[in-house]
Amino acid sequence: INYNLAHFVASYGKASQIPPSTCPEVSFVGRSNVGKSSIMNKLFGRKGLVKVSSTPGKTANINFFEADGIHFVDLPGYGFAQRSKAERDRWAVLIGDFLESERSFNLVVSLVDIRHDPSKLDFEMVDYLRENEFNFVVALTKADKLSRAQQARQLASIRKQLELPAEQIFVTSSQTGAGIDELKRRIAEHCLD
Ligand code: GTP
Ligand code: MG
């Protein structure tokens, strides 16, 4: 997969506006500010292609990117308390409608901050993906903010809490590029035949 060819396709404010899938799709979900947009930029090797912000709630729409015949879908983050209830509700509906729509969900990448225990909404997301039999992996983000030893401890702890097999969860950093090769392996595994 040549990620350097990545480009923006379209932005949608409603799941019902999105045309049917025409190719494999990889979707990124996780709480606001967890690093969804950043990990996509790292994957593409392109700093500013996907809009990133230190203010949670940067991504307010469902944004499609394409690289080498595969769609990469950046979703709004869930659960940012400082946003208005109306906004949070709109995003929850957007994410829910998207995941419930009839699409080629080749792989869902569920992002969780490595520094903290999973939030209630993180648990709900993983349970939802598991119960509905999505192909998914959990990418622990921002590993550069912890020491090696702390990373190992958090990986073990979060894996246990989320009840995931070892091969379904791994450590990443959009800063150092840690775990990006692993992510690319999973994407290739689910998107190429
Ligand atoms: P929303 O669009 O609001 O849902 O956020 P998001 O999940 O897309 O997060 P985004 O990629 O915009 O990153 C949020 C903040 O975290 C930015 O300030 C990033 O620079 C920072 N960040 C993201 N990934 C990493 C990482 O791996 N390491 C460090 N140190 N900071 C990161
Ligand atoms: Mg974003």
Number of strands: 7
Describe the sheet with the most strands: 7 strands, mixed
Alpha carbon gap, first and last residue: 12 Å
Show unreliable segments.
none
Instruction: Evaluate the radius of gyration.
Output: 15 Å
Give the bound compounds. guanosine-5'-triphosphate, magnesium ion
Within CATH, the superfamily carries the name: P-loop containing nucleotide triphosphate hydrolases
Number of discrete helical segments:
5
| Helix content range | 25-40%
Characterise the protein shown here.
- The chain is α/β, with parallel strands linked by helices.
- Helix content is about 35%, strand content about 20%.
- The chain has helices at about 35-45, 85-100, 120-130, 150-160, 180-190; strands spanning about 5-10, 25-30, 60-65, 70-75, 105-115, 135-140, 170.
- It is globular, with a radius of gyration of 15 Å.
- The two termini are about 10 Å apart.
- The model has no long low-confidence stretch (mean pLDDT about 95).
- It binds guanosine-5'-triphosphate and magnesium ion.
Features:
193 residues, alpha/beta, Rossmann fold, 33% helix, binds guanosine-5'-triphosphate, binds magnesium ion
